[in-house]
Amino acid sequence: MQARKMAAAADVIDIGGESTRPGAVEVTAGEEIGRTAPVIAALREGGLDLSISIDTRKASVAAAALAAGANWVNDVTALRFDAAMAGSVAKAGCPVILMHSIATPETMQDDPVYDDVLLDVFDALRARVAVAEAAGIARERIAIDPGIGFGKTLQHNLTLLSRLSLFHDLGLPLLLGASRKRFIGTIGAEAEAARRMPGSIAVALAGVAQGAQIIRVHDVAETRQALSLWQAVTEGKSR
Questions:
Q1: pLDDT value at position 10?
Q2: Domain tally for the chain?
Q3: Which of 25, 26, 52, 81 has the fewest CB within 10 Å, making it most exposed?
Q4: Residue 82 forms part of a structural domain
Q5: CA pair distance 212, 226, nearest whole angstrom
Q6: Angle at 57 between CA 130 and CA 84, to 5 degrees
Q7: Mean pLDDT of the chain
Q8: Burial of 75 (C-beta count, 10 Å sphere; 0-12/13-18/19+)
Q9: pLDDT at 157
Q10: pTM of the model
Q11: Under 8 Å between Cβ of 60 and 29
């Protein structure tokens, strides 16, 4: 199973049952629960003690996943999609990742426009953090994600990545999820997503260099090795 392979090098396994790639259509909550909760339960029953994140924008899916053994909620809409999500997360007392996005996966790449993408995303995340705290979610349980590739053009993505350190001003753990994204394929001349590992690692290391504390990747072992070497040569010693 892919999750078990990842567990050898990962700190958290992120499990989702609804694609949020550009153009993806929404699936029902019931279908999403059927795709995720049994997998999480099976992993726990099999002895996996690693943290598990449920990647969903629906409160009922999050609740089912948490009941099955998940520890975190990763909401790509930063609690915007489902009005019940904030209260559900607050009640569970679990960590939550608030990611910036606009519109829906079906339409988010239809000519996204910002006055200043860096400041607009920063302000939007700050506002969503305030909503989360008002709902009773403790600040120390919140992480933020600028949402690379979610309602952003190639230039928007590059602007955010080049100034990623700005988001530390929010005083919260910063997650970077750029692995295999379309802009990597465009710049790296690779149409097939599964063949974008070199570019994904390059972006991950650039993010770590700007202080990103959490890196969401597909190629876990390879990224872990690259990160270990980057840290060793940067610090002049191995850990």
A1: 85
A2: 1
A3: 25
A4: yes
A5: 15
A6: 60
A7: 94
A8: buried
A9: 97
A10: 0.93
A11: yes
